[in-house]
Structure formats: C-alpha cells, structure tokens
Design a protein that fits this description.
Length: 145
Amino acid sequence: MKGFLKIESIWEDDSLLEIKVVASNGKFSGEAECYTNRTTIAELGNSLIDFPNSLETIVEFTTGERDDLSFFSLKFYCGDGSGHIYMKVKICHNEGYSNKKGEQFSSVFEIPVEPSQIDKFVKSLNRIAIEELGSVSAEIRASNS
C-alpha cells in the first residue's frame, strides 16, 4: 500500500470545524476526528505554498495536542541535501467515557512526498476552507522513494 494523508470536513458550528484525518505510510496508519476551524486550515495551506524554498525549511501544523481530545500534527521538511521531502504525521484518537477513564490510540510515522503533491494538497486545503462541508477533501500521496 502506498502512503497517503487525507483530510475532509465533516461537521461545523459557529466557531469549530470538525475534520476527519486518515493517514498511512503502508505499514502504520491512523484515523481521528479532530476540531479546528476554516481559518487554520487555510493557514496550513498558505504555509505550504512554494514549499520548500530552502533545504532548511520546516512547516509544522497541529490541531492542538491534548490528553482529552483527538488531534493530529504534521511536519514537512527536507530529509537530505538532495531535497527529498518528508511529511511526519502524528495522529491521536481519544475516546472518552463518562463512567471510566478514556482510551487513547496514536501513531507517528513519515511519508515521502513529491513537491507536485504538496501543490495539489495546498489547493485542496484552500478549498476545504471555503466550500460546503464534505464537498471536497485534501489528499497527499507518497512518492515512490
């Protein structure tokens, strides 16, 4: 299985956007429903425009790491002097219960990506930020390396 990351909007109220995040590198995977907002999704997209502009460029994003809510985080960086790009993914799913301690499931892994995939991802993230719920998803696929 080839690696990927997929984000889609699933619910919204006045100030929160709930998104579903699914990712895998072919060996490890994770899935969670996380809270963010449209502005933050657009900011993630905008931070990746023209990535990378140098070998030292790093872009990090998180929906906020907490013990009581599901979240995900991303880190885009160049892994070597040849400019190979990697995306480090952390996904944490928290299940809470009213009568007992909740359970937490998490996975952390890396996915190699091509610059052209990042450009497509940016466009899709910007569409999630403005379009109707569930009408578009943002996806990035692993490179063959």
